[in-house]
Design goal:
The complex is a heterodimer of chains A (about 400) and B (about 140). Chain A has about 400 residues and is mostly helical. Chain A is about 75% helix and about 0% strand. Chain A has one domain: Na+/H+ antiporter like fold, CATH 1.20.1530. Chain A is globular and about 55 Å long. Chain B is built from five helices and five strands, in the order βαβαβαβααβ. The chains are: A mainly alpha (about 400), B alpha/beta (about 140). At the A-B interface, α2, α3, α7, α13 and α18 of A face α2, β3 and α3 of B. β1 of chain A pairs antiparallel with β3 of chain B, so a sheet runs across the interface. Chain B: Pfam families: Usp. Chain B: InterPro entries: Rossmann-like_a/b/a_fold, Universal_stress_UspA, UspA.
Chain lengths: ~400, ~140
């Protein structure tokens, strides 16, 4: 037991350092935790115990659930056709492209190639959202369409991760049947639990949701699938309830980011090998390029088909080329289940992190749409020259 | 030199308060108007939408309180005072706002960062001085 406390203290110290650095640098705590994990694995030679695996696994599940719950159902309904088309293309093209590249160019085994395809098929809703908040695009219809398409894209990724490696037997049938039976009444049940017992110290509504996540997670794993699959689906169906209950969202978020996801992201960094980054630098670059080119081939023509002007289409395509959370989850799933080795894991996670950074920088620097609100552009590109135009982009304004 | 519109970078730090006081002092003899701009820097490459929203909500509330305090100080001096809150990169937003609003003076406080942070990241003041379209005053405190 003494050993457990010591290990927990070291991991929490790393998580605290990551939080402070992320606040100071203005970079996501997840990325800094991965970097801290890389340091912990390569320099401190930290190891992962059974209980850390458990906490990290729960962290990934809760994070995935929260990601699903962030969808705006109304936006999705309003932009259903273009977001479905763009989201599906955004998943299929890089999934097949990266898998084919891994199999036929890099010479990876079939299962490893599928993991590469899944890990690089994602789009990071959170990365895209952060970029769009800075430019004000999140308030426009274009921004809402892009976000809805990102959710569809990630649904494809989660479905692929959950089904490709599943054993097609009676457990999988049971998992599908039970999931359908649970998801259908879950929004109403969740709302009822909140209304009846919500807001108490014993947190029945949090426990109710965790029960659903853990039970379906168990069934998914038993069927040879992945616990993040039902987690994302549960998040999607209760998104409407979460939009109504901000307090519940905040409490779950506190649990996740305070005590669970640090274990997940630090663990994800722990297995990244610095020597493998150096020796695999060219392959990392190639995977990143394959992902971006595949997104370009799949998404860009559709943006034009849905009457987006050229610049907006390129911007949308670049934002859909981002990735982070589901990419690392997929790669870690592959490593944990022996589908890829540590070198391949390192290549994939580094390419995934690259995809969080590179496309957003290109999009922001050269392809910010003309439809972006005034004041959002670079100073050199600013089309506004008067005070009223400037004020329109401010969040708030007051005067004496 | 006559200043009619003064923009102040205001984040509630000691340096920014000093910058505001200097700006108000400069504005008084010219009956200039003073605008305090607070920039919300949101985290990049996030893993959850919540990271962005929380940071934004946190700073919006903080800036609302700071602007109330600043407004009282300006009112005591009888200066025409306005406040702005924008999301973006601090230096870039200060520069683009100064340009868009045709300000003729931009006042910022020196951050006081030195050593590692200053060397690696540079300071907001460095960047603003390099790119601003108007006169810049960097207030040391």
């Amino acid at each position: 037991m003494e050993h457990v406390w010591g290990t927990a203290a070291i991991w929490m110290a790393l998580a605290l350092v990551a939080s402070l650095f992320s606040i100071r640098l203005g970079i996501s705590v997840a990325l800094v935790e991965i970097a801290v994990g890389v340091f912990g694995g390569n320099v401190l030679h930290l190891e992962v115990s059974e209980w850390i695996n458990a906490l990290a696994g729960i962290g990934a599940v809760v994070l995935t659930f929260l990601a699903g719950a962030e969808i705006d159902p109304e936006s999705l309904r309003r932009h259903l056709k273009p977001s479905l088309a763009i989201g599906i293309a955004g998943f299929v093209f890089p999934f097949l492209g990266a898998a084919a590249f891994a199999r036929f160019v890099a010479g990876w085994a079939p299962d490893s190639a599928w993991i590469a395809g899944i890990a690089l098929s994602t789009t990071s809703v959170a990365v895209v959202y952060a970029v769009m908040v800075e430019t004000g695009l999140n308030q426009t219809e274009l921004g809402k369409l892009i976000l809805a398409a990102c959710f569809i894209n990630d649904l494809g990724t989660v479905l692929a991760l959950g089904l490709i490696f599943a054993g097609f037997d009676r457990w999988l049938l049971a998992f599908i049947a039970v999931t359908a039976l649970v998801l259908w009444p879950l929004p109403r049940l969740t709302r009822w639990v909140i209304q009846t017992w919500g807001g108490r110290v014993s947190e029945p509504e949090v426990k109710f949701l965790l029960l659903a996540l853990f039970a379906l997670g168990w069934l998914a794993t038993r069927a040879g699938s992945e616990a993040v699959l039902p987690a994302y689906l549960i998040g999607l169906v209760v998104a409407g309830v979460f939009h109504e209950s901000r307090a519940l969202t905040l409490r779950l978020r506190t649990i996740a980011f305070g005590a669970l996801t640090p274990f997940y992201f630090i663990k994800a960094g722990l297995f990244v090998s610095i020597p493998a980054i150096i020796s695999g630098a060219a392959l990392i670059g190639a995977f990143l390029l394959v992902k971006m080119v595949a997104k370009l081939v799949g998404v860009w023509p559709l943006t034009r088909a849905f009457a987006m002007e050229r610049r907006s289409g390129t911007y949308t395509t670049l934002l859909m080329s981002t990735g982070l959370t589901f990419g690392t989850i997929s790669a870690l799933f592959g490593l944990t289940n022996g589908l890829i080795d540590q070198s391949q894991y390192t290549v994939l996670v580094t390419a995934v992190i690259g995809s969080a950074v590179v496309p957003t920088l290109i999009a922001q620097t050269w392809f910010l749409p003309e439809t972006a609100p005034a004041g959002a552009r670079e100073p050199g590109q600013a089309s506004v020259s008067t005070l009223p135009a400037m004020e329109s982009s401010s969040l708030s304004e007051g005067e004496d | 030199m006559l200043f009619r519109k003064i923009l102040v970078g205001f984040d509630g730090s000691k340096g920014s308060w000093e910058a505001l006081r200097r700006a108000l002092a400069l504005a008084a003899p010219f009956s200039a108007e003073v605008w305090a701009l607070s920039v919300i820097e949101i985290p990049h490459w996030t893993a959850a939408v919540a990271e962005v929203d929380e940071q934004r909500a946190l700073l919006e509330e903080r800036y609302r309180q700071l602007h109330d305090e600043a407004r009282q100080v300006a009112a005591q001096k009888g200066i025409s005072f306005h406040t702005l809150v924008k999301v973006g990169h601090s230096a870039q937003t200060l520069v683009s706002t100064a340009r868009a609003g045709e300000f003729d003076l931009l006042v910022i406080g020196h951050s006081g960062h030195s050593g590692v942070w200053g060397t690696f990241l540079g300071t907001t003041a460095d960047k603003v001085v390099r790119h601003a379209p108007c006169t810049v005053m960097v207030v040391r405190w």
